[in-house]
């Protein structure tokens, strides 16, 4: 694995790359990709950072694990490649946008269009072995992505953090509540959404309202 991350992030994360845990993580990921089918493709592991540069970050959405079926993961949480069937959580995200903002349900589930507007779509774990959910958890990725969240909190102001589900909500402790906005909700997965914990959260209109209050350009969801 090459740490192919956009130069805007490097001044903030280069000390992280030098830590022993990160070097062990790189070796682990290299071995996994060499000996197993893993996702996303190796050149897309840091896609979230390469499409959303540090100076542009205004919204952070936190996922847990990349999709682990063939052709799905593209390095952005909840996102799939063009022409790939939308997974259930993404369907529910688009349904909420549809009712919240009146935006028609999109054909493509590729969320690069969000990332390019300053939405960091960050999975806590950036890689996974095919068909084995959680297989790369607790190998060091979480230490790295926690550091990313804390760095954004420390170095920026008026970022909107969208924390969906119990796992993402745990990341609140890394965020300065006085400088940033945090919106909490159930997870968009069917299990949570069908129990009434997702639909109607209006996170997309609320995010744009918060951005406008901070004199930032709203997101074209």
TrEMBL record:
Which SUPFAM superfamilies does the UniProt entry name for this protein? Uracil-DNA glycosylase-like (SSF52141)
Q: What is its EC number?
A: 3.2.2.27
Q: Which CDD domains match?
A: UDG-F1-like (cd10027)
Quote the InterPro entries the UniProt record gives: UDG_fam1, Ura-DNA_Glyclase_AS, Uracil-DNA_glycosylase-like, Uracil-DNA_glycosylase-like_sf
Main localization category: cytoplasm
* GO CC, one annotated term: cytoplasm
Q: Which PROSITE patterns match?
A: U_DNA_GLYCOSYLASE
* Residue ranges of domain Uracil-DNA glycosylase-like in the record: 50-211
Give its localization: Cytoplasm
GO biological process entries: base-excision repair, AP site formation via deaminated base removal
Molecular-function GO terms, alphabetical: uracil DNA N-glycosylase activity
Q: Which family does it belong to?
A: Belongs to the uracil-DNA glycosylase (UDG) superfamily. UNG family.
Question: What exactly does this protein do?
Answer: Excises uracil residues from the DNA which can arise as a result of misincorporation of dUMP residues by DNA polymerase or due to deamination of cytosine.
Q: What is this protein called?
A: Uracil-DNA glycosylase
Give the organism, scientific name: Mariniflexile fucanivorans
């Amino acid at each position: 694995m090459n740490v192919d991350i956009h130069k805007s992030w490097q001044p903030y994360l280069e000390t992280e790359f030098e830590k022993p845990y990160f070097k062990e993580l790189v070796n682990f990921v290299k071995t996994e990709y060499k000996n197993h089918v893993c996702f996303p493709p190796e050149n897309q592991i840091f896609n979230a950072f390469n499409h959303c540069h540090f100076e542009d970050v205004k919204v952070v959405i936190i996922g847990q694990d990349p999709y682990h079926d063939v052709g799905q993961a593209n390095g952005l949480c909840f996102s799939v490649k063009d022409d790939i069937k939308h997974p259930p959580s993404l369907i529910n995200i688009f349904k909420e946008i549809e009712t919240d903002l009146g935006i028609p349900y999109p054909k493509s589930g590729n969320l690069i269009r969000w990332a390019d507007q300053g939405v960091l779509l960050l999975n806590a774990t950036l890689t996974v072995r095919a068909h084995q959910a959680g297989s790369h958890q607790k190998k060091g990725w979480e230490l790295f992505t926690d550091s990313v969240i804390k760095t954004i909190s420390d170095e920026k102001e008026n970022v909107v953090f969208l924390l969906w589900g119990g796992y993402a909500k745990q990341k609140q402790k890394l965020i300065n509540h006085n400088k940033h906005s945090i919106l909490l909700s159930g997870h968009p997965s069917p299990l949570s959404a069908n129990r009434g914990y997702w639909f109607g959260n209006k996170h997309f209109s609320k995010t744009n309202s918060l951005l406008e209050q901070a004199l930032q350009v709203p997101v074209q969801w």
